[in-house]
Amino acid sequence: MPNPFAGYPVTDDWAAHRARGSLGGTDYGTPVGTPIYCPNPGYVSYEYGSGSGGYIITLALADSPGYKMQFLHCSSFEGTNRNVNTGDLLGYTGGAAGAPGAGSSTGPHVHVHIINPNGGREDVQPWFGDYGVPAGGGTSALSVDGDFGPRTRRALQTALGVTADGDFGPASTRALQSFLGVTVDGSWGPATTRALQGFLGVTADGSFGPQTVRALQASLNAGTFVKPVPAPAPKPQPKPEPKPEPKPEPVPAPEPPKPVVEPVIPTPAPVIPPQPVKDPVMPEITPLPEASNNAANDALGILIPDPKRRKLAYALYGLISLVISNVAVGVLASGTQAPGWLVIALAVTGNLAAPFATLAIANAGTTKK
């Protein structure tokens, strides 16, 4: 199967790993962010490991059941657990000391080995048709000479993940423009150069000269010509249950304003000027007739105003009373039977005879008119 790291030096092979007591593997000196392309159809899975291997890509080989190829010290993954074919992008290399996913690595590289069906490790190099270039071979570090020649172009193409043929044509330019975030039109003009210069930290004058090339060669050698490494996807955290919001306490309705009672000012009573006091006019008092010494006489005087006639009436009544009383006595003395009413009338008349006779005698000598 093709070796995705054929153009990179082997910095630590299987024998060297085993000699120092390691489980074994092959290290390829790749800059941080070098694309990892699938060398064989299979099923890929990812592990955000916290051990010495860091972030790990595991490829279960479809044509060799039970065998897995692992890539250690990765910087990021591409996609999710899935079926892949030869040439599919699996992720990017890392290994820079202290970088996310580097594990115990002390420098940029990728570690590759085979896991057999028994769980043991095997050397990966016999599986690759191109075993890679030994350390110190033809793909050693670039000379920082400002010459954008075939070796520099191939190194830039490798960093961009396109075919490293040394011919930096439209396809490679589009990859560079996409990497820099400018208009992707396949034409390398001043705008692309200024974006590259800004990325490398040199004067962005739009002129792709030796100064810019030297900065590019130094970045490729240091493994810093890479896209920003995306942070691992955070594990979903359970959403906290929302706390019930406290119910607002009812606000008492404001009391209606009390009516302002204006004080009632009493109206002063009109002052009536004092009136002159007149002497009271006494009504004329008609003198009452002198009262006699006899109440019966006074009463009869009212009925008979004339004193002479009144005297005559007294005398006549007294005489008649005497006659009747005497007759009654005579009748009673003779034993004659008489009606009851007559007896009562004669008794009353007889009893009144004495007082009337007394009145007549009393008034006989008066001169009252």
- The CA-CA distance between the termini, in Å, is 183 Å
Tally of alpha and pi helices: 8
CATH architecture of the largest domain: Distorted Sandwich
Number of strands: 11
Structural class per helix/strand content?
A: alpha+beta
Radius of gyration: 76 Å
Low-confidence stretches: 133-140
Features:
369 residues, Glucose Permease (Domain IIA), alpha+beta, 3 domains
Describe the structure.
The chain is α+β, with helices and mostly antiparallel strands. The chain has three domains: 9-134, Glucose Permease (Domain IIA), CATH 2.70.70; 150-222, no CATH class; 295-362. Helix content is 30%, strand content 14%. The chain has eight helices and eleven strands. It has helices at residues 14-19, 150-160, 170-180, 190-200, 210-222, 295-303, 307-334, 340-362; strands spanning 9-12, 26-28, 35-37, 42-48, 55-61, 68-77, 82-84, 89-93, 110-115, 121-122, 133-134. Strands 1, 2, 3, 4, 5, 6, 7, 8, 9, 10 and 11 form an eleven-stranded mixed beta sheet that branches. A hairpin with a 6-residue loop joins strand 4 (42-48) and strand 5 (55-61). Helix 7 packs antiparallel against helix 8. The termini are far apart. Residues 133-140 have low confidence and may be disordered.
